[in-house]
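pipeline stage [seq->struct] | target=PIG-L family deacetylase | organism=Deinococcus rubellus | residues=329
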Amino acid sequence: MRLKKPRKWKRLTSLLVLVVLLAAFVNGWYWLPTGSLTLHQVKAAAAALPEMKPLSGRVLFVSPHPDDETLAAGGILQDVMERGGQVYVVFLTSGDGFEWDARATTRELSVSHADMLRLGLQRMNEARAATRALGIPASHVYFLGFPDQGLTPIYLQNYLVPYTSLHTGVNRVPYAGTLAPGKPYTGKELDRQLSAVYDLVKPEIVLAPSAQDGHPDHRTAAYLASRLASQRGEKLYFYLVHGGLEWPLPKGLHEGLPLAPPRPTSQGLKWQRYPVTAPQRARQIKAIQAYKSQLVVIPRFMWAFVRQNELLLPAPAEGSPIPPADLGK
């Protein structure tokens, strides 16, 4: 028995070392050798990207969830307004499918449909505060109230028959303050409402999620936005929020570092750097602070987007839409 004790401690020590190394890889801890390598790779990858020309005019940001606008383009949206342009944001869902968020806010392991609906209202209010912190007028912010984690089945399987959210238990828009309260969760209605926002805003430029994003809601939003752009002729740029478990690196607040994409090219196109100034980052930080429910659960992920630059990917000139078959991948 005495011989087995050292072996047991050796196994535990080995496991602890593996856990620390994995955490260092995922978080990019700069004070470890792995973190130093991460910093070098991020700086080199960002420096190799072309710098993007500033945007101006009427810009519409298509946001699958409350917080995507602040994380992916908090600096860009400010820059557009500082140059005399107008910024609009449309939130497709109210973020009412993130159960760990609800557990953190209710401090209960088990959450009900009513808890998730309250979370949706909370995240809508957080989005109002965040966009206000960025300087976006309240009249330029639209909420559709479709279900978080439900956009793909709605569009591919429930185009005509209402979809019931697995998280809230409802099959129609339940929130006041949305574009069309009470309307059914169908792909046809989602199409109609997003088209109505385009008609109201008349954007010259649309910022939409990348089809390479890891979240299915984002991929569906990418298809919707690219299809509308191909029909209407708006200039389209893609952004990225969910680039994989290890992205963006390093985790946490690193204002002095650039942001590099997980892959420099996507579908044959190269990502571009959009510079962000120190005052713009300061307002972006205030906007992130408005998302209190998110900061309880994923703070280091949220802060990792406050960098010297943000990233955009120009869509192909022909604006061809993403095939629907790619949405479920």
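stage status: PASS
auto-comment: The beta strands are 58-63, 86-93, 141-146, 205-209, 235-239, 265-266, 269-270, 272-275, 309-314. The chain is about 45% helix and 15% strand.
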